């Protein structure tokens, strides 16, 4: 009898132990679940707070843009039309004044070279003091004593003394200063209207290319003759051209 009671008590203690273990396990699960829930809830709350803050910022930016777009042009009237009036007349006036000022400035800065003009009625002064030793001749040949042959001559060859001053026969712009075997140091003046004057057999030229010179200005000094004019002696090679073609200089001299 006592043995049965002991077995019964043992079974009861075993069941109690099992129930206790189950209850402890359930309690652990509940505690873990509660902790996980709280962590999830906190994270969710943070995300919701961030979303609300972002939405608030977007709304503020939209309001600022809307206010900027509604700023009224100070030049517009109440009906939205510009109050500046018609500026076309003012612009035309300013443009006319600008053109007038430009013309005045151009006139003030214009050089005599801008008004160069030479034609068949113009007069050339003699560039050297000597006599003509070879005449211009393009319609027939003449005898050249240095070359000992007959040939055409596109220029006047005027005798002179070494070191003699050679002066500009007319106003012009120095177009080129060159050195050639035939005419030595040579200055070409642009006299305007297609006319040019060529001065050869020079030395110590004081002018520069592009420079404007008046009639009578010193262009250089007469040099020793080149081998092409050794028989003629010191002489000035003086050629006048119209559009690149030689013309008789005597036709323009008094």
Automatic annotation (TrEMBL):
Compositionally biased, Acidic residues: which spans? 93-104
Q: Which SUPFAM superfamilies match?
A: Duplicated hybrid motif
Molecular-function annotations in GO? metalloendopeptidase activity
Q: Which Pfam families match?
A: Peptidase_M23
- From the UniProt entry, list the residue stretches annotated as the region Disordered: 59-114
Transmembrane annotation, as ranges: 20-37
Q: Where is the M23ase beta-sheet core domain?
A: 155-249
Which superkingdom does the taxonomy of this entry point to? Bacteria
Q: Where is the composition biased (Polar residues)?
A: 66-92
Task: Give the record's keywords alphabetically.
Answer: Hydrolase, Membrane, Signal, Transmembrane, Transmembrane helix
Q: Provide the protein name.
A: Murein DD-endopeptidase MepM and murein hydrolase activator NlpD, contain LysM domain
Q: Which organism is it from?
A: Hespellia stercorisuis DSM 15480
């Amino acid at each position: 009898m006592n043995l049965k009671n002991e077995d019964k008590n043992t079974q009861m203690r075993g069941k109690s132990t099992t129930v206790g273990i189950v209850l402890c396990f359930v309690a652990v699960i509940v505690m873990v679940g509660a902790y996980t829930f709280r962590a999830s809830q906190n994270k969710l709350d943070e995300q919701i707070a961030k979303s609300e803050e972002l939405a608030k910022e977007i709304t503020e930016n939209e309001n600022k843009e809307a206010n900027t777009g509604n700023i009224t042009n100070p030049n517009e009237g109440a009906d939205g039309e510009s109050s500046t009036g018609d500026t076309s007349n003012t612009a035309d006036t300013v443009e006319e004044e600008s053109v007038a000022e430009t013309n005045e400035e151009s006139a003030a800065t214009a050089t005599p070279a801008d008004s160069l003009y030479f034609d068949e009625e113009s007069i050339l002064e003699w560039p050297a003091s000597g006599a003509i030793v070879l005449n211009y001749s393009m319609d027939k040949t003449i005898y050249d004593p240095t070359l000992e042959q007959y040939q055409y001559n596109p220029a006047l060859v005027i005798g002179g003394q070494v070191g003699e001053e050679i002066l500009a026969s007319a106003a012009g712009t120095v177009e080129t200063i060159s050195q050639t075997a035939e005419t030595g140091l040579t200055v070409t003046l642009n006299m305007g209207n297609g006319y040019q004057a060529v001065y050869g057999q020079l030395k110590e030229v004081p002018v520069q290319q592009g420079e404007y010179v008046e009639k009578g200005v010193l262009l250089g000094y007469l040099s020793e003759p080149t081998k092409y004019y050794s028989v003629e002696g010191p002489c000035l090679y003086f050629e006048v051209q119209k559009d690149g073609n030689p013309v008789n200089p005597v036709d323009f001299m008094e």
